[in-house]
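Q: Sequence in, structure out?
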Amino acid sequence: MFKVFSFFIFLSFCSTSWAAGFTHVYFENNIHHFGFVYESQGEIHCTFQFQNTGNRTLKIEKIEPDCGCTMAIPSKTIILKGDTASLHVVFQPAGRKGTFTKNVYFYSNAMQEKITLKLTGQIIPAYTVMTDSILTPQKLPLKVPKKKKHGKR
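A: Exactly. Output:
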């Protein structure tokens, strides 16, 4: 019985010291919803705030957007334990329309090596061609007045 108890104490000590050797990163939000965005307004921006909640220095290894229309810039690449930093993200809606979801992948030396940050929204095109609304003579919403008969006076 003593051997089993000792084994569990040993395992808990090993797992605690193993986890203490890694750093952790905490993002306040990992999704940013832009809502409705006009294509003509140009690039749009958002910022993701995060903190190094581990016991070691956090090192950002790379930040990889999934599309060329998105760019991400960290405020710093080395974050000491307990410090905060931000990731500034720029999205270019030009040439796109409708609902969008873009991912930005955050790689670091944290326990969770890859974190996915999402951008979502709805792009309203600069102009819309409405082919169904072309009026033809049969579809004109006008009533043609009937000719009056001229009576005798």
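The CA atoms of residues 46 and 114 lie 20 Å apart.
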